[in-house]
Amino acid sequence: MTFQANASEAFLAIFEENKQQIRSFPGCEHLELWQEKDTEAVFMTYSWWKDEQALESYRHSELFRQTWAKTKVLFAARPEAWSMIVKSNTP
After folding, report:
1. pLDDT band at 91 (very low <50, low <70, confident <90, very high)
2. Does residue 69 contact residue 62 with C-beta atoms inside 8 Å?
3. 7 vs 4, 11, 55, 72, CA distance in Å?
4. Residue 69 near residue 34 (C-beta atoms within 8 A)
5. Are 22 and 63 in contact (CB under 8 A)?
6. What pLDDT, in 10s, does the model give residues 11-29?
């Protein structure tokens, strides 16, 4: 997610306000917020979900709708989302 100049603090406040509710959402097993090390306005959430149905339930929830409504007005570029699968978890 790339945010408008000076919008990073507003996004961080939204994330802090909602992170415990997201982590407690049924099926959410892990949630982290990452910030690009050289670009203050670029963030990524990294989350693990029990299954695709749990993620879809979150995406259709009131919690997501409210959080997204506050977040999307801060974007400077279209956000991207990827669903990934583990191909190898051993070195």
Report:
1. low
2. no
3. 5, 6, 27, 11
4. no
5. yes
6. 999 999 999 999 999 999 9
DSSP string, the chain: -BBPTT-HHHHHHHHHHHHHHHHHSTTEEEEEEEE-TT-TTBEEEEEEESSHHHHHHHHTSHHHHHHHHHHHTTBSS---------S----
- 8-17, Cβ contacts within 8 angstroms, sequence gap of 24 or more: 8/40, 8/41, 8/43, 10/74, 11/43, 11/71, 11/74, 14/67, 14/70, 14/71, 15/45
Domains of the chain plus CATH, in order, are 8-72 (3.30.70.100)
Count CB-CB contacts under 10 A for residue 69. Answer: 10
**CA distance linking residue 15 with residue 22, whole number of Å:** 9
55: β partners: none
